[in-house]
Amino acid sequence: MASTFTAWLRSPAAREYFFSTHFWGPVANWGLPLAALADLSKDEEVISGPMTSALTAYSMVFMRFAWRVQPRNYLLFACHATNATAQSVQGLRYINYWYNGGQEKKQVAHVADVVQPAKEEVAAAVEKLRK
Asked: Are 97 and 46 in contact (CB under 8 A)?
């Protein structure tokens, strides 16, 4: 299998593929899904709903294009499938945060994080006064 692949790499067909837009277009386009995957760990407050929707629709349209074009461009299809998935997850995070109470839950958790050290300080001060 490896020898067949190596032989193909040395062939004119491989050079034609690697120097075509069927290869470099998808490679350059991988920046979008990589950025979307990196954004999955960011705060929900910075997610743009309209942009996420636009990128999801864009990826779905071009995923179909990559499948329908002859010869099929599997690299471009994988790129847009990854981006559509990542953008869909971002869209769900956006909806959960802004419309399903995620923002309130985050605020309550933040208040609890702030209150706990204050409680401990007050308890320590009370103990100090009792002694």
From this structure: no
User: pLDDT by residue (tens digit) across 24-41?
Assistant: 878 888 999 999 999 999
Are residues 68 and 121 located together in one domain of the fold? no
For 36-63, what is each residue's pLDDT tens digit?
999 999 999 899 999 999 999 999 999 9
Q: How far is CA 24 from CA 16, 64, 83, 95, in A?
A: 12, 19, 17, 35
Classify residue 101 by its DSSP letter: S
Let me know: does 87 contact 52? Beta carbons within 8 Å: yes
CB 29 within 8 A of CB 55: no
Q: How many CB atoms lie within 10 A of CB 1?
A: 5
Q: What angle do CA 3, 4, 9 make, to 5 degrees?
A: 95
Is the Cβ–Cβ distance between 47 and 95 less than 8 Å? Answer: no
What domain range includes position 123?
A: 102-131
Considering only CA atoms, which of 27, 26, 46, 28 is closest in space to residue 38? 46
